[in-house]
Amino acid sequence: METTVKKKGNGRKKIEIKKIEKKSNLQVTFSKRRAGLFKKAAELSVLCGVDVAVIVQSPAGNIFSSGGPSAIDSIIDRYLAATSQDGDRKNNMEIMKEIEVHEKVVKENKDLKGISKMGSEEFWWERRFDDLDVNELEEYIAAMEGLKKNVLAKVQELAARANAAPPPP
Amino acid sequence: METTVKKKGNGRKKIEIKKIEKKSNLQVTFSKRRAGLFKKAAELSVLCGVDVAVIVQSPAGNIFSSGGPSAIDSIIDRYLAATSQDGDRKNNMEIMKEIEVHEKVVKENKDLKGISKMGSEEFWWERRFDDLDVNELEEYIAAMEGLKKNVLAKVQELAARANAAPPPP
DNA sequence: ATTCCTATGTATAAAAG
DNA sequence: TCTTTTATACATAGGAA
């Protein structure tokens, strides 16, 4: 038998909406809720077909944030372009890699600061990057992380449709 | 007895995260979720003491969004300034009025378009207003509505502190 | 800092007013 | 069209690993 002394989680408790004092607690809550906020934003974006952006200032330091689905679409475009060249040997892992590449590209754009190819409406939110710091970009990347699942779903859908393209009779 | 034939709401059902086709449904979902998103953003802001902004593009048309707590702070400043002039005869209803005034001011700024006093970092998000339309401002106002409770709490706290200022001995 | 767990608080899809 | 109700799905605080 067991000693029955294994009380697991106590379950959620209600909290007041006021500044959290306990610092460690604040950090955890920040992480969880930021993730939740990004998820909700992504869902709203997909469900209603609208562009959504969320910008937060981390407690530690500077600002930063998540981009809209336009960015996601461009990632998908790049992926589909790549697969049509290489055949279908890229897998989901590769898709994730693609996303990470995108993240790097954005980061590099930040370093260049002279961004001229970024003038389109689609990247309005990226225009702010030349004002931002590296930490802020990390926030952005974190946001992209949160969207990976959605991207994956979208990509799979599009890829499946692309593969279903009928060959010439 | 009753005929037991009064099936009320069926309750929430799970939905896929994909673009909603039924237009009426989309409109409802957009409204609800946008409100929810703003609420979550406001909570994150208060709980963690960080600046949060949400920007969404309405399905109907253009962009717009909700501002960070900096805006709230400025509202509080204005309120405290007003109360120190008029004594303490303003009540909570008046505070709400103050907020509405602020909303109008923003709207007017939109019409002026030449905004020069808005150059500070604190109002970065307002800089976009000259690109926006009236409908978008209404969205902004709706967002402010959602934050009124937080403002009220904050104002009461600050007002109490102000009133507690010790008279010269 | 992430991740898993569990018990709950919240958000919300549908239906009804 | 907006608000309220109902029944549930989902998010998340606290604790532990």
UniProtKB/TrEMBL annotation, chains A, B:
GO molecular function term, any single one: DNA binding
PROSITE patterns: MADS_BOX_2
One GO location term (cellular component): nucleus
Keywords carried by this UniProt record: DNA-binding, Nucleus, Transcription, Transcription regulation
Family matches, as InterPro entries: TF_MADSbox, TF_MADSbox_sf
Domain MADS-box stretches: 10-70
Highest taxon, organism lineage: Eukaryota
Entry's localization field: Nucleus
GO biological process, one term: positive regulation of DNA-templated transcription
UniProt name for this protein: MADS-box domain-containing protein
Lineage: Eukaryota, Viridiplantae, Streptophyta, Embryophyta, Tracheophyta
